[in-house]
Amino acid sequence: MAKFPFPTVDFPVFLAPMEEVTDASFRRLCKEFGADVLIAELVSSEALIRDGEKSFKKMAFSETERPFGIQIFGHDEDSLRRAAEIAAAQHPDFVDINWGCPVKKVVSKGAGSAILKDVPKMIRLTESVVKAVDVPVTVKTRLGWEESNRPIVQVAEMLQDVGVRMLSVHGRTRSQMYSGTADWTLIGEIKNNPRITIPIVGNGDIDSGAKADEYRRRYGVDGVMVGRAAIGNPFVFREIQNFLAGRETTPPTYEERVETCLRHLRNAVEIKGERTAVLEMRRHYAGYFKGIFNFKEKKMRLMLALTVKECEEILK
Question: Do the beta carbons of residue 51 and residue 20 sit within 8 Å?
Fold first, then answer.
């Protein structure tokens, strides 16, 4: 296996960075349940260099969260380089460049996965960041912009050549967004390329221990990254770790789901304030209580709740 640029286990399981999901309150729960490597919510380079308070809060982390990465995105070379310097000054274990986000507000500015339409620019901007900071620089990206153009195998070589220390690949193109099934065959090709010596982390559709183990064996990746399957479900990391270690695991009880959900909410309030925490928790409820019989009525009430007290009363 390739060597990671930070201390971790032999086959680390990553929590993928997700906007308004992977804040400190949720990251710490995922760490508790077995996530090996955490990455902050993606931070706009333009907002960061303008001294945006919200961006600095996104980068804040505790020592217990290590190994920890700060992810930045942007489209302008000077802004991206300066943002990387600011991020590196927070002393994370690595700075990650997001060349994979498919959402319109990011892509429309030429950032995220839009860069896959201009690979030479992608490489130039990445090299600029690598030269600007002392911490390891990593990249997260997709297979390509669309099905007819999936250059990731060649892109991986070029990114390694300019000094990228780890590459995470989501097995979809930008045109797919999150639809269909992730295609890991090209991720496997990267790992089979004798020129590639950096760690390759696979991302896309990892939602169970069985799948993490199957994809590890089938494609030879050095680690896996869990994204949407973790929303409202930090327990997925416990399941994955138990499966990889050959241990039995049981689903969380209803009581554990309620206790963990409330702990998540209360910690979020301490970090973001009650209103923001209550609103952002709404995206987690479906995950916390998936499969619970007759939960729909409670979920509807939770989606309308505006205070922690209301949420506590509904869940208890």
Answer: no
Q: What does each C-alpha distance from 104 to 80, 107, 121, 141, 215 come to in angstroms?
A: 19, 5, 20, 16, 30
Token duo for residue 136 = 């390891």
Residue 232 has pLDDT above 80, yes or no: yes
The model carries a pTM of: 0.96
256-278 per-position pLDDT tens digit? 999 999 999 999 999 999 999 99
Tokens of 306: 């505006």
Give the number of other Cβ atoms within 10 Å of residue 88's Cβ.
19
152 near 141, Cβ under 8 Å?
yes
138-142 mean pLDDT: 98
User: Which of 208, 174, 168 is closest to 191 using CA atoms?
Assistant: 168
Tokens of 134: 């002392």
Annotated active-site residue 101? The verdict is: yes
Q: Which residues, 6+ apart, have CB-to-CB distance to 171 below 8 Å?
A: 142, 143, 182, 183, 184, 186, 187, 202, 203, 204, 205
Measured in whole angstroms, how far is the alpha carbon of residue 161 from the centre of its chain?
24
How far is it, in rounded angstroms, from Cα 62 to Cα 24? 9
CA nearest neighbour of 75 among 136, 39, 128:
128
Looking at 30, 101, 261, 311, which residue is catalytic? 101
